[in-house]
Amino acid sequence: MINTKTVVVKSVTKKQPKALPVRKPKNYLNNKDMLAQWKLSSDQDAITDTFANMLMLLTKRYSSKVRFNVCDTFRDDMESFALLTVSKVWRSFNPDKSDNPFAYFTQVIKRAFYQYQNLERRQRDISNELLIEKGQNPSHAYMVEYEYKDFDPEEAGGDINLVAGEEFDLADIEREIEELAELKSG
Fold first, then answer.
1. Residue 9 has pLDDT above 70, yes or no
2. Are the C-beta atoms of 83 and 52 separated by less than 8 Å?
3. How far is the CA of 173 from the CAs of 151, 154, 179, in angstroms?
4. Which of 59, 121, 128, 169 could form a disulfide with 142, with the two C-beta atoms 3.0–4.6 Å apart?
5. What does the pLDDT look like over 107-156, one tens digit per residue?
6. Taking each helix axis from N to C terminus, what angle separates 49-63 and 72-89, rounded to the nearest 10 degrees?
7. How many CB atoms lie within 10 A of CB 183?
8. What's 67's DSSP letter?
């Protein structure tokens, strides 16, 4: 008796290793490249296209911070003002003092944003004061900012201080309210 077994041969395929994801550079700009472009721009006495793109990218990334999440037109105006400021002061970077142009231009952009916000606030205040003179209501932000500027708690009836855990009696409070009402009427 012959024992016949069928042998099944499976084809063996090698698994391909997974393709590694393309690693993006950690920083979108680096000091070495910015410094080289600044020196090139300084030698030419004009901002190179690459350096201008770096400054625009820096401005765009800085404006995407949460504190500047306002309407897009306002953000676009702030970016434009910051780029205008950077284009005025780019020559004032001194590589002898610091070899960190990224930090220098980030500070210039940050201060330009705050300067623009202060300019806009002044314009808003002027507009709201004109509205008040004409007998109309100012913006809500103006009212919140300036309504309590001259607030005097003594004129408003004094301070009410409740200490956490302090027990109070409703009858005592009602009695005090009646006494205050009598003082004001009498």
1. no
2. no
3. 24, 19, 10
4. 128
5. 999 999 999 989 988 998 899 888 888 888 888 778 777 766 665 556 65
6. 140
7. 8
8. G
